Amino acid sequence: MNKILVRSLTAIAVFVVATMAFARPAAGPPEGPFDLDPEQVVSHMTEKLDLNEDQQAQIVALLEARQEEMKGERAKLEKLNRKLVEQGNGFDSDRAREIADEIGATSANLAYARAEGHAQINEVLTDEQQTQLSEFFQMRQDCRRAMGKHRRSGTT
């Protein structure tokens, strides 16, 4: 009896998480510089960090290469999310777990690729530019946290 209850609750949880994960990418903004036009990203970075022409060319190349690499992983993630949601009426707990595990692995690959890309961009920057970029990311993270608290509190 407990086994059935645990399996049922697990199946429901996986289904809910998959549904939320599937809906999020379509509704949300791009996740970072690897989701935007490389030329626009570099233009903005040049404005804020005073990149030289060599740095601009290197970063555009890095961003373009990373976008191509990540495109396949994103497509895979979308396909897996659809598969999980499509389980619907014929829910197979074991298959859902396999798909959910694959979603986790693919998400981890994307997170790693983003981190690696940021590290590669950092290598192109001077120490001063790295500090400025780090401060920008910290400020952006602080703003996002504040907006999240604002939304959760229900105030406008």
Describe this structure in words.
By secondary structure, the chain is an all-alpha fold. The chain contains 5 helices and no strands. Helix 1 (2-27) crosses helix 4, helix 2 (38-49) packs across helix 3 (53-85) and helix 3 (53-85) runs antiparallel to helix 4 (93-124). It is extended. Residues 5-30 have low confidence and may be disordered.
Low-confidence stretches: 5-30
Number of strands: 0
Quaternary structure state of the chains depicted: single chain
Strand-residue fraction? under 5%
Query: How helix-rich are the residues, as a percent range?
Result: over 70%
- Main structural class: mainly alpha
The helix-strand sequence is HHHHH
First-last Cα distance: 47 Å
- How much is the radius of gyration in Å? 20 Å
The average pLDDT is 79
Sheet of most strands: none
> What spatial form do the alpha-carbon principal axes imply?
extended
- As for the number of domains, it is 2
Q: Count of helices?
A: 5
What can be said about this structure in brief?
This protein has 156 residues and is an all-alpha fold.
